[in-house]
Write a structure and sequence with these properties.
There is one protein chain. This protein is an alpha/beta fold. It has 2 domains: about 240 residues, Rossmann fold; about 180 residues, no CATH class. It is about 40% helix and about 10% strand. It comes from Gordonia neofelifaecis NRRL B-59395. This is Hydrolase. InterPro entries: AB_hydrolase_1 (IPR000073), AB_hydrolase_fold (IPR029058), Pept_S33_TAP-like_C (IPR013595). Pfam families: Abhydrolase_1 (PF00561), Abhydrolase_4 (PF08386).
Length: about 500
Amino acid sequence: MAAGVLTSVALVAGCAVGPDTGPDIVRGDHGDQKSTEVPRQPELQAPRNDLNWSPCAGKIAERYGVKAPEGVRLDCARYDAPVDPSKPGGATVKIGVVRAKTAATPADAVPLVLTSGEDMPSSRTLLSFASGDGHAALDRQPIVAVDHRGIGTSGLIDCMTTTQRGTYDTNAAGDDRDVAARAEKLSEAARTGADQCNDTLSPDQLAYSAAAAGEDLEQLRQRWDVDRLAVLSVGTGSSVALAFAAAHPDQVGRLVLDSPVGYNVDARAAAASRARGLQATLTAFLQRCAGAGCSLGANGAATLGRLMSTGAAGQGDALSDTQVLDAVTTALAVGDTSPAGLKELSAALTAADRGDTAALRALSDAARSLRLADGQVVARCNDMRGRPGTDEIPAIARDWSGQSPLTGTTTALDLVRCDGWGVTDSPPAPDHFAVNPLILVGRNDPVNGADAAADLTPLMLAANTAPTTVTWDGLGYSVAANSRCAGDLIGEYLGSAPLGAPTERACPA
């Protein structure tokens, strides 16, 4: 497979990700001559001018309901970015950034700029590096998380009613499980919500796209007074990073696409990939949970399916199918995925199956807070192109549920959340890269699914680039945050020499 993105992967034992000098490089139009020049990647620089940082570990921990990470210093700052960079002197928006480093981090180290797009606040994704296997990366360089405009520390948008948010949270589940009825109810809430948010944000309701967030990275680069950024994107942050790369190709010094999604992909196709990928992730969770001796036992799929079915029926204090799915996938994304952590999640599910939904509801509430804020809805809808009509959703749900019984209905209904919302024009795609990207693919990604990464293949082919692709068989959101092997490879990638062969690698779970 030509770009090496999510194809058959050469299995590499352990963490064998060292460089290979490879063959001599043929350059220029002297096809019969081999150059002995050692290829080098673009030079990276530490910030010449820095932001006004202040310690904020306690504040960030409180915001996300977690313990402050031990041995990691968190600092916060904000900067102004133009709402529309094409209109100098116009309105600005505050962009929040959080920096993580350790006592061992060199003072002159080049920072990695982290964005997780609208999946969840980048500042929350950063905490996974502070507490997981990615912690070792902070000893080499600081990671600076840039929250997507309108999300997290970049300021929250408040434009929908509590009732509308509740409809989004359950995807309009109630006593009637009929998908057509749910789609109509959800569409009505979406359209009224769109009207209110348009009124609140006008004239800038289309200024929350991935392309706009990409320009916020350019503003950071200018404030730092550096030639290039080293960007680490996770999930939908890949669209932010690629929009930045398309608009400012020579300002990208390194580009890591961690658990990426497709770029400018039709909404139906993107949702279908997500349904398949999340179904595979849930299957992996249930298998590993059974192996760890979880309370779900060997037939966890039946328990999970039963919870979603009765939840959609609205019986008692049951949660909807959408809430159950979001609770589980978010817990797998940011929670403990060790055997002990899987057992805790399993206990919440089996308790809910017995009628005690307290623990699962707490997980659902945390998921809603982290992944369904008004600003995230605005951003997603700005970028959702080619949505099917509401009347098509029941057939789509039936079709997808055949292959993905635990995820098909929810991902189909998710498409209705943007009915009536404004959509931006498709941003240009990068036509070349100043440096070959490094792509990390989590086979069990609980937020977007692994299938989404394959949608980048046409883009890589069109840009005539040869990325290094690394697959990871672990369970979690962000390969870099959960795999020391991947973190070590990123450290190598930040060096001056390009990564050598092989271009397809694997890191152990």
